[in-house]
């Protein structure tokens, strides 16, 4: 009788890819997945350690599993939190049998096979080498997370950017690109699986290939994917870095309808002084010029970005610059976060001087501005026929996404009546809400 595993994946889509890779290796070794905790022999939490609330969620999930763990069960803590805070996790969550760092997800089977249920270990067994292993010993597993008709494909891991507030380099190490030939092979596999949307992800997709000596690596990779997987209708780019959206990348996006007119480029702020304290690109002239260039070259371009409010030293004047910028640029989607103080980052000496209530008030003001913009952007689609990827059906309503909406983070399209799940269908947009749209299926 084969053993069963129960896996909880927390955090971002990049973590989801690692989780599905671990699941694939376990299944190859004879384990069976289960969504029932009580039935599992192995309990695994792929944790997130990016900011305080994410760490707390990871610890709470581990504590809950540890509290209800049976004698025959093993508990493994994996991922970002354990990579950086392994001792804290071991001390704060009694009952963990094994710890697996985010850079050693491929050792999940080796770790589980070393563990013995019911045995009291003086401390959890560790698999935590410090050296990055991306693209070197991934054991041939598909580095993608398939979710319905969409798939996240990881093209690199780690980050070499110096952002003062970010702990990712401390967790993931420097940027390491996966070999292009492997990525192209995986794109072909995903095409054969019938995937309709391919989402390219990394900590910084625009840095792809830098460590391999490639120039314009992302544009070159996209051209390869277009050639090798021509039947995937939608290709989407996430996590671009300001200053590295090149003219060639814009040209490739503009000339190939397969690449959806969408770009996610986290800017984090709009005031040069704030950006300098963040150790982020502060040339706002480049931002204005590049966004204008992209909109001129790519019709119906949808732009998503992310901002941090309440960063140390952010004055009311600096925040007002951000408000004005959001009103002027008219982003389709904006993610907003309050500053999270992280020990060990370059921003640690700045402390966390802005009161929580001020941060929340600024978040609310920025959200209010963006909601008006989002509603206006959505209203512009009313009357148009949009291709919509149908992802579900509930009580007479089909639910899907248009090209300007990425999964999980953006809006939905609610379509009257039945539509084939997993297919892209034409929908006439009939109504607009702040984040979502309504429509009717256009029948032949």
UniProtKB/TrEMBL annotation:
What are its GO cellular component terms?
cytosol
List each copy of the MTTase N-terminal domain by range: 3-117
| CDD domains, alphabetized | Radical_SAM
Record's catalysed reaction(s): N(6)-dimethylallyladenosine(37) in tRNA + (sulfur carrier)-SH + AH2 + 2 S-adenosyl-L-methionine = 2-methylsulfanyl-N(6)-dimethylallyladenosine(37) in tRNA + (sulfur carrier)-H + 5'-deoxyadenosine + L-methionine + A + S-adenosyl-L-homocysteine + 2 H(+); L-aspartate(89)-[ribosomal protein uS12]-hydrogen + (sulfur carrier)-SH + AH2 + 2 S-adenosyl-L-methionine = 3-methylsulfanyl-L-aspartate(89)-[ribosomal protein uS12]-hydrogen + (sulfur carrier)-H + 5'-deoxyadenosine + L-methionine + A + S-adenosyl-L-homocysteine + 2 H(+)
Q: Which HAMAP family match?
A: MTTase_RimO
What are the subcellular locations of this protein? Cytoplasm
Q: SUPFAM superfamilies recorded for this chain?
A: Radical SAM enzymes
Superkingdom of this entry's organism? Bacteria
According to the entry, every stretch annotated as the TRAM domain falls at 379-443
The entry's [4Fe-4S] cluster 1-binding residues are 12, 48, 80
Q: Which GO terms describe its molecular function?
A: 4 iron, 4 sulfur cluster binding; aspartic acid methylthiotransferase activity; metal ion binding; protein methylthiotransferase activity; tRNA-2-methylthio-N(6)-dimethylallyladenosine(37) synthase activity
Organism name: Anaerolinea thermophila (strain DSM 14523 / JCM 11388 / NBRC 100420 / UNI-1)
Say which enzyme class the record assigns. Answer: transferase
Instruction: Tell me yes or no: is Transmembrane helix among this UniProt entry's keywords.
Output: no
Task: Recite the UniProt keywords alphabetically.
Answer: 4Fe-4S, Cytoplasm, Iron, Iron-sulfur, Metal-binding, S-adenosyl-L-methionine, Transferase
How does the cofactor bind to this protein, according to its record? Answer: Binds 2 [4Fe-4S] clusters. One cluster is coordinated with 3 cysteines and an exchangeable S-adenosyl-L-methionine.
Summarizing the function annotation, the protein's role is: Catalyzes the methylthiolation of N6-(dimethylallyl)adenosine (i(6)A), leading to the formation of 2-methylthio-N6-(dimethylallyl)adenosine (ms(2)i(6)A) at position 37 in tRNAs that read codons beginning with uridine. Catalyzes the methylthiolation of an aspartic acid residue of ribosomal protein uS12.
Its recorded name reads Ribosomal protein uS12 methylthiotransferase RimO
Q: Give residues annotated as binding [4Fe-4S] cluster 2.
A: 159, 163, 166
Similarity-based family: Belongs to the methylthiotransferase family. RimO subfamily.
Cofactor(s) the record lists: [4Fe-4S] cluster
Q: Where is the Radical SAM core domain?
A: 145-376
Q: What is its EC number?
A: 2.8.4.4
């Amino acid at each position: 009788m084969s053993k069963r595993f129960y896996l909880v994946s927390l955090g971002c889509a990049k973590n989801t890819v690692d989780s599905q890779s671990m699941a694939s290796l376990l299944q190859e070794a004879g384990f069976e997945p289960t969504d029932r905790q009580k039935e599992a022999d192995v309990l695994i939490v792929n944790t997130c350690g990016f900011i305080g609330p994410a760490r707390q969620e990871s610890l709470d999930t581990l504590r809950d599993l540890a509290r209800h763990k049976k004698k025959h069960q093993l508990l493994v803590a994996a991922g970002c939190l354990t990579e950086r805070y392994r001792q804290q996790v071991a001390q704060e969550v009694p009952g963990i049998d094994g710890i697996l760092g985010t850079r050693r997800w491929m050792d999940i089977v080796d770790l589980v096979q070393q563990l013995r249920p019911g045995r009291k270990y003086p401390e959890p067994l560790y698999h935590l080498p410090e050296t990055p292993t991306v693209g070197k010993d991934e054991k041939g597993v598909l580095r993608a997370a398939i979710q319905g008709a969409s798939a996240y494909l990881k093209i690199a891991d780690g980050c070499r950017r110096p952002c003062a507030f970010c702990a990712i380099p401390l967790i993931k190490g420097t940027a390491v690109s996966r070999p292009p030939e492997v990525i192209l092979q995986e794109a072909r596999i995903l095409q054969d699986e019938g995937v309709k949307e391919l989402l390219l992800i990394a900590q910084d997709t625009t840095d792809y290939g830098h460590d391999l000596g490639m120039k314009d690596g992302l544009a070159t990779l996209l051209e390869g994917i277009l050639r090798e997987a021509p039947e995937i209708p939608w290709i989407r780019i996430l996590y671009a870095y300001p200053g590295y959206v090149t003219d060639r990348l814009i040209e490739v996006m503009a000339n190939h309808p397969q690449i959806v007119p969408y770009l996610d480029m986290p800017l984090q702020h709009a005031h040069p002084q704030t950006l300098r304290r963040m150790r982020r690109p502060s040339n706002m002239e480049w931002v204005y010029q590049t966004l204008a260039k992209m909109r001129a070259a790519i019709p119906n371009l949808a732009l998503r970005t992310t901002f941090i409010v309440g960063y140390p030293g952010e004055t009311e004047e600096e925040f007002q610059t951000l408000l004005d910028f959001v009103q002027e640029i008219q982003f389709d989607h904006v993610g907003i976060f309050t500053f999270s103080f992280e020990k060990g980052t370059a921003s640690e000496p700045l402390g966390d001087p802005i009161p929580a209530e001020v941060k929340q008030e600024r978040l609310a003001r920025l959200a209010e501005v963006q909601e008006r913009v989002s509603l206006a952007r959505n209203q512009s689609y009313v009357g148009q026929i949009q291709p919509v990827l149908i992802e579900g059906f509930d009580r007479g309503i089909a639910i899907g996404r248009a090209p300007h909406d990425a999964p999980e983070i953006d809006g939905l399209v609610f379509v009257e009546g039945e539509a084939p799940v997993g297919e892209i269908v034409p929908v006439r947009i009939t109504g607009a809400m702040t984040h979502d749209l309504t429509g009717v299926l256009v029948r032949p």
